[in-house]
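Re: your question from the hallway

Yes, I did run it. Sequences:
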Amino acid sequence: MLKINNLKVAVNGKEILKGLDLNVGPGELHAIMGPNGSGKSTLGYALAGRDGYEMTDGSVEFDGQDLSELEPEERAAAGLFLAFQYPVEIPGVNNAYFLRAALNAQRKARGEEEVDSMTFLKTVRESIKTLKMDEALLKRAVNEGFSGGEKKRNEIVQMAVLQPKLAILDETDSGLDIDALKLVAEGINGLRDGKRSFVVITHYQRLLDYLTPDRVHVLSDGRIVESGGQELSQRLEAEGYAFLEETAA
Amino acid sequence: MSALIDSLATEARLPADDHAAIRRRAHKALLQHGFPDLKTEAWKYTSLRVLEKRAFSEQQAGASALPALPFAATLLHFDNGILNVDDLDLPAGVSLQPQTEEQLAAVDHGDRAGAFAWLNLARFEQAWHLQIEGHLEQPLVLAISTAADFQNDVHPRLLIELAAGARAELIEVHEDRGEGLVNIVQDAALGRAAFLRHLVSRQSAQSAWIQRSHVRVARDADYRFHTLDRGGRLTRHDLAVRLTESGAHAEVDGTVLVNDRQHVDFHTAIDHEVGHTNSRESFRILADGTGVGVFNGRIHIHRGADDSHSDLNTANLLLSESARINAKPELEIYAEEVTASHGATIGQLDDAALFYMRSRGIPADQASALLKQGFAAAPFENIESESIRDWLMGELAELV
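Structure:
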């Protein structure tokens, strides 16, 4: 599904990712953990195609396509989704309208028919219910005046409606209380169907308690320095990232 | 004298009718003060050169198209600026009469800044007195439209009076296909506890639109002004609202869009003349291409107008390097126990929001259109009527 080979990414001329390798197969859920400043969010933005995140070397293949050739909206239409660490407020643009415009733009790009508003509302209402969100949020401007937790859950609603092939979740767990965390995990698990893949970027193990990742990777200074199973995340939680230096030494 | 005096205000162009004395007085005032120029403080960003280069025809233009509206309304069509009264069907509580000699004689338009209003008084074709009582069920629409061959100048004049407790929505739809001058003067008075929603939707081509709206708001009355101005070659609107009795309330919301070779200038003034009066104003300009947008919003809280509250905000979007926006809030406070806040921002489309939308699959041009639309539509959220709000949103969607 996702094959990253020796990826180097520079932001403002400064190299942040320094040769990252990652392979995520169909249906797999990978966790990427790492200390602040290790390049976790840069990876998310670079994969989604944000301006200023320049791929200087290496390759990224997504579902058989060279990702670097695609605009952000083309990546989305191809099935890539990034749940933002800080979801952006869009004043004056209605949440439901925005989501439907996004869904239909993707469908149009794929040569599929647009969904009618009834079908759309049905889908979106189901997701809203799963995440125990207030339906009134659909009528508000995108993320405007949402609490931190509502913004994060709104990302999961978008993911559920857009049905991507690969979802990258950038610290979706940060700022969530334990109840919201469980709801978000449920939202993610509900979308695991054996084909859809996930890359979950997180600081902490607590979200992973509910997700059972296939692989856990540790990102440090722009490279994956350690990979393993769930036990790796437990070790990180217990010992912190300090052991990385020991490993390196 | 100036080119505008020669083209618009020679003695020969004063209509010969019963109002000769009033017209001569106005003409004299105009000659005495002259038209504003860039040295006139309130006109320093708006040049009249476009107008000075024009010759105005005295041939009657062809009939102008009536704007289509998606809601039920009582329609008054000012065809090329002249109201056709033949088939007028006014609802109960509404009356329309010519203004009297006495009403016209009482007018004072001040100095040079009032030049176009003096011109209007000297040259008006019709001066109407619109009176409203009770609650109007349907909006009153004043559709002022011009035909493609309109190269004339026209000077509509209107006095609007709402009786105590009256409630009305007055919607002005200005549509211009010509290359002339529409010079509107309107005065409105809201009686005690009256409510007036006053909306101006304007789409101008090559004509110049000069409009002066003066509004007086009495005890516990509520005046709401909204405008969606979709740009024009030269548009200038002066809105002055006086809160003259305790409990008077005013809200002013505007969105202006300008693009290549367009210039729109809004000057608003809200005067809190007595205490316990409230106002709120929010104005937005989106300037693209070589468009120029000007907003000057003045709040004046007079001496003794204690315990008054006002909030003025202007947010603006510069969408190209050659567009220009001059936005200025002005606050003058001479009273005590007052809260008055103001803010002004000029910025560009938010890159983070654009990327967020694109990352969801929305193509870049559609994403920026949605952002612009959202920004421009924000002031309309204060309109309770869904059909009117939807209409304005639709007009916006076509534009951005």
